[in-house]
Amino acid sequence: MKLYIYILFLATYDYKDVLEKSLLFYEAQRSGKLPSDQKVTWRKDSALNDKGNNGEDLTGGYYDAGDYVKFGFPMAFTTTVLSWGLLDHENGYQKANSVDDCRKAIKWATDWFLKAHVSANEYYGQVGSGTVDHASWGRPEDMTMERPAFKITTSAPGSDLAAETAAALAAASLVFQSVDSTYAATLLEHAKQLYDFGYNYRGLFSDSITDSQCCYTSTHYEDELVWGAAWLYRATNDQKYLVYVDELYSTVQSMYGFDWDQKFAGAMTMLYKVTKDEKYATDVKNYCDYVINSSSRTPKGLIFIYDWGPARYAANLAFIFMQEKSPHGKNPTWKNTHMEKKHMEKYPNGKKTTWKNTHTEKHPHGKMLTRKNAHKEKCSQGNKPTRKKHTRKNAHMEKCP
After folding, report:
1. Where is the stretch described as Disordered (predicted)?
2. Which of 7, 198, 223, 260 allows an S-S link to 92, with CB 3.0 to 4.6 Å?
């Protein structure tokens, strides 16, 4: 999943409308049996036979991007950041009357994580084959292909996947603590188990779940272990997680962005937030200043990190910038946060992003939008069958390189 949403109320834009529509994106991505309060009514039940290797129920969760596969790694990152946004900017969600919708979006993912965590050291990180997926077109409701399930174990480890999912569950436990303490406790228990699994059995998940390499090849796992420990410390106040941080922090290689693969910017920001330790404050300031002052820019000034989905990187960085206005007092980073947000939203008809429905793409890559039986038509990746049946009013559109 590649859409991450945040809210900052300014007079210039209708962020309430943006937030409401953005949360609908997650409803459109739902897999499994849909609830009676589903707002995106053109989506129906799908993938009701998703099972693990031993028949475990793996229905539910979210489809990735415009495809059929459920990739646990990016799904977990999305869930962590959704929870972070709700926890630290709940007032914005309250103003938008979107707190409940955001909780539901988070829970749709965490319910699946609980299903996928079938034992302490066994976790399903993917359902569906990326290779098969990209050779097929049509609605998820019409899928007929086999959907294999892939897991990490002690002999096929995935420290990054386990620790990221631990972060997601720990963050979500804080979200639900005040409204469903029993569910929150369950999330936290699974978070602890998954973190221990990832810490004790080291390896990259994409080396174990090789099918994921078509779309999500992980580069390191140390950043996820630090990120997961930071979230578990916030959720538990248990000092042992700071011991893990102290052990691992210096081993994390320098990372530029903040995304499904790179967590260090988020980790250092969270660690400063929960410890107020000056060493993290210095790292956050240096990181933000470097990004602001050294990044490539588009002609209109948008920070440009990578050519595949550039607007998401700018959005994620803006979120980091707004977490702490300034760890060291007056800092130009906060001023530039507003600039980044504004630049992002000044592309109503351009290739970078469309936050609101000022421009409707005729052929977005989204199988959920396709009409019934489209899978029976002949087409290629560059020649999709006619126009989509449904229009999304919430999509984050980007031009592929």
Report:
1. 341-401
2. 7
